[in-house]
Amino acid sequence: KKQAEKAVHQKKEQSKTKCRKARRRHINLVAEFNHRQRKNIWLETHIWHAKRFHMVKKWGYCLGNSPTEKSYRACYRAMTKHCLLQDLSYYCCLELKGKENDLLKQLARICSTDTGLTFQEACYLSGRFEGSLYLYRADRYPEDMLGPVTFIWKPRDGSENRQLWIWVHPALKQDILRELKAIFQCTEPEEMCIAEPVTTSVQEEKQVEVVASLGNKRKKEDKEGEKAVPVKKIIGDGTRDPCQSYSWIAQTTGIAISDRSMEILRYRLIGPLSHSVLTDTLKAASVQTV
């Protein structure tokens, strides 16, 4: 009898925490990630880096600074003999759309041929190569330098309208964007960026209760009993508030400037086997004509 009573007292209470599969359900992870990215934006590879690097907060992002293990020799070996990949998605992308002549006329004011090849070189206009140069304030060369940028043109499609992507460091983005809007005389459009709703802790608790009450179905429902829309990832970057405008257009020339930061991912491959990795990873899609 004493042994039986002792066993009853020693029996552990059943844990109320959910299992790992339930805690890592995708729809809950996205809501949690959005909540934790309110101040510093995460890159797509944040989880991988957070497990292996010391993270730092710079330029509105949470970036991997130094590895937790001694991997310098491994990185050097990868760069010299294999392939090393770097995530440069924190670089900001500015997209310009408009007529080619109008774009080149105004872009010539913020750069100079004395520093190297510019936007109007034939090899860059074809869209086959990526270019790099230094930008200055309009008509102020060689003074008032803004900083270095890289750019690439979208290949021609037979139309006079062209598309240009300019990649800038997040620390230089606001100054360069302000100068581009000034030379093209772009104003904010009527459409504003609508931020995706971020669930609060109270809402998340209610959603978890609804999920638990449904048993094996594991479906979320709102107050009306209909299926709730999954929480989407926040679109934005560390240099711009999600509620601010992200596109501007010139009323006279029709040139449009769009902020594509964190919408276009950017990776850098270094090493002799970089081309082999790309050919094995990416498969060419079949061309379908309508």
Explain this structure:
- The strands form 3 sheets. A 6-stranded antiparallel β-sheet has the order 6-7-8-5-10-9. The chain has a 3-stranded mixed β-sheet with strand order 1-3-2.
- It contains 10 helices and 11 strands.
- Among the domains are: 23-87, no CATH class; 92-188 and 245-261, Aminomethyltransferase beta-barrel domains (Alpha-Beta Plaits, 2-Layer Sandwich).
- 29% of the residues lie in helices and 21% in strands.
- It has 290 residues and is α+β, with helices and mostly antiparallel strands.
- The chain is elongated and about 95 Å long.
- It has helices spanning 2-10, 20-23, 26-36, 46-50, 72-81, 100-107, 122-125, 173-184, 201-213, 274-281, and strands spanning 41-42, 53-58, 61-67, 84-87, 92-99, 131-136, 145-153, 161-168, 247-249, 256-259, 267-270.
- The chain starts with a helix and ends in a 9-residue tail after the last helix.
- A hairpin with a 6-residue loop joins strand 9 and strand 10.
- This is POP1 protein.
- One of its GO terms (biological process) is tRNA 5'-leader removal.
- Pfam families: POP1_N.
- Residues 4-98 form the Pop1 N-terminal domain.
- It comes from Gymnorhina tibicen (Australian magpie).
For the sheet with most strands, the description reads:
6 strands, antiparallel
Based on Cα principal axes, name the global outline: elongated
Structural class: alpha+beta
Measured between the Cα atoms of the first and last residue, the distance is 83 Å
Poorly predicted runs: 193-231
Our count of helices gives 10
User: Compute the gyration radius: what is it?
Assistant: 26 Å
